[in-house]
Amino acid sequence: MSVSGKISQIAGLATFPPNLMWSAASGMVARKFWRDELSKQGWLNTYRACEFTSELTYNHACYWWHSFKNMREDVRDYLELGSWEGQSSVLAGWLFPKARITAVDWFANPQANDRFDRNTASFSNRLEKIEGTTVDILMRFAGEGRTFDFIYVDADHRFDGVLLDTILSWPLLRKGGYLVWDDYLWMHPAIPHLNPKRAIDAWLASRRDSIDVVFAGHQVCVQKIADDTQITDMAYWN
């Protein structure tokens, strides 16, 4: 990388709040090593056997490998919100070989839907594909009492959508489980103030005593170390 590129990266750390900055800096320093390590694990063969129109989750797979390589068989229930062509599903299916993969998406684009089916065919026996909105499905899961070890949020990128998906996902995440957001630094020029980062930052601040930061960069991952404290609403006080 050029000197100007390194300077730009270092300057970019200023966009992270204090609770994420150390993890972001650590990842920036180590990710080349992580990528080299991942390249020796057979992941590239799995990835190249699939058909994707762009490299999305692939670019961040090294963070997942570094963070979860020693607990690959511990993740048994994986949920993702937003699947598109299945790139994140394929990564999860490879990284967590004993996990049940639950993919939620509109699946409204015929071409992307077909690619999703082809790309995930090798582990279709442990894949649950659910068509619908994330809000509807998450509320249904709550009513059914379903919980997960790992939840990946990559659906509606608008502030309200990211925050709502996060709020509804949190009770479904088991204590000790992991929550990952994609596109932390994504921004649309039409709504620069309504982006995932603002929603994620606000939620992280509200749960600072219930989480440990695992990694931060274009994606952010936290571990749930405590459940929310249960209180009685004041409407029920005597």
What do you see in this structure?
With 238 residues, the protein is of the alpha/beta class. It has a seven-stranded mixed sheet, with helices on both faces. It has a single domain (3-236), classed as Vaccinia Virus protein VP39 (Rossmann fold). It starts with a helix and ends in a 14-residue tail after the last strand. It has helices at residues 3-12, 18-38, 43-48, 61-68, 87-95, 110-119, 134-144, 159-169, 196-206, and strands at residues 77-81, 100-105, 127-131, 148-153, 173-181, 211-216, 220-224. The mean pLDDT is 92. Helix 7 (134-144) packs parallel to helix 8 (159-169). It is built from nine helices and seven strands; from the N terminus they run H-H-H-H-E-H-E-H-E-H-E-H-E-H-E-E. The radius of gyration is 18 Å and the shape is globular.
User: Tell me, what's the shape?
Assistant: globular
Number of helices: 9
Mean pLDDT: 92
- Tally the structural domains: 1
Q: Portion of residues in helices? A: 40-55%
Task: List the main descriptive attributes of the protein structure presented here.
seven-stranded mixed β-sheet; 9 helices; alpha/beta; 238 residues; 7 strands
